[in-house]
Amino acid sequence: MMDIEQIARVVKMVESSQLHEVTIADNGQSIKVVNSLGEQSNVSANPIYTTATHEPEQQSSDAVQVSATYVGQIYLSEDDTTDNLVKEGDHIQKGQTICFIVELTRLQPVISNKEGIVTAVLVESGQNVEYGQPIFELARS
Hints:
The chain has helices at residues 4-15, 37-40, 55-60, and strands at 21-26, 29-34, 63-67, 72-75, 91-92, 97-103, 106-111, 116-121, 128-129, 134-139. By secondary structure, the chain is α+β, with helices and mostly antiparallel strands. The protein folds into two domains: 4-40, no CATH class; 55-139, CATH 2.40.50.100. Strands 3-10-8-5 form a four-stranded antiparallel sheet, with no helix packed on it. A four-stranded antiparallel sheet has the order 7-6-4-9, with no helix packed on it. Strands 1-2 form a two-stranded antiparallel sheet. A hairpin with a 2-residue loop joins β6 (97-103) and β7 (106-111).
């Protein structure tokens, strides 16, 4: 008989991976897990460390975005009981840890590659994110 914890682990791994579907069979029983999030996000993601190369583009907009560096579940605080690391109105620096993403079973820090004042938090704690997905919007300082 399949263990419910084992099934939950498989579901989480499929959610945070690029897999579309997986079927697991055990002693005549089988379970099929389908990741419908993957269908919606088949857009090519930009790596977080890209920088604009056109000067006029940079001057036309004061807003920049910080994107997810991993695929997984995002956490805006260190342990879900403390305050968020970054809130609207906060000034963040390049190199600052701004949130965490659980990738497979590892807690990975997300480090900002931009500096500015947070004008919008675009995700909620516990939400699944894709690599390159915008998570914070900043106004340049």
